[in-house]
């Protein structure tokens, strides 16, 4: 678990740089390219709009959900900017983590003016 924390910290640093330059409450699409650029500058491997399957018994739904970024084959990242972070946002990311078989995700919310409110680490065990 410890190996994922520095990875998450690099993504948060990247988001902080983007937030500092662009501010809050723009469309999600405005943040995607700069965020990807900042993550790559920090040496991270980034897949944008990464699709994942979901399984039910022997049935596989190939494109069940996507995350905005899949970082270093480990970390799921969802971004939003259209309102405060809700319990539903967190529950959705937890569901994605479960189906992807990953333990940590980040919810980056560019709605907030104060960057300290812009990120939430979400864990599943």
Written description of the protein model:
Pfam families: PDDEXK_3 (PF13366). It comes from Methanooceanicella nereidis. This is GxxExxY protein. It is a single chain. This protein has helices spanning 4-22, 28-41, 87-100, and strands spanning 46-56, 59-71, 75-80, 104-109, 119-123. With 125 residues, it is of the alpha+beta class. Helix content is 38%, strand content 33%. The radius of gyration is 14 Å and the shape is globular. The chain has a domain at 56-66 and 75-83 and 95-125.
Task: Name a few traits of the molecule.
125 residues; alpha+beta; globular
Summarize the structure.
Pfam families: PDDEXK_3. The chain is an alpha+beta fold.
Question: What is the fold's blueprint, element by element?
Answer:
Blueprint: H1 4-22, H2 28-41, E1 46-56, E2 59-71, E3 75-80, H3 87-100, E4 104-109, E5 119-123
Q: Which runs of at least 5 residues are low in confidence (pLDDT < 50)? A: none
Compute the number of helices: 3
How would you characterize the largest beta sheet?
5 strands, mixed
Identify the overall geometry: globular
Average pLDDT for all residues? 94
What proportion strand? 25-35%
Strand order of the largest sheet: 1-2-3-4-5
Task: Give the N-to-C terminal Cα separation.
Answer: 10 Å
Task: State the order of secondary-structure elements, H for helix, E for strand.
Answer: HHEEEHEE
- Total beta-strand segments: 5
Counting helices, strands and paired strands, the structural category is alpha+beta
The Cα radius of gyration reads 14 Å
User: Helix proportion of residues, in percent?
Assistant: 25-40%
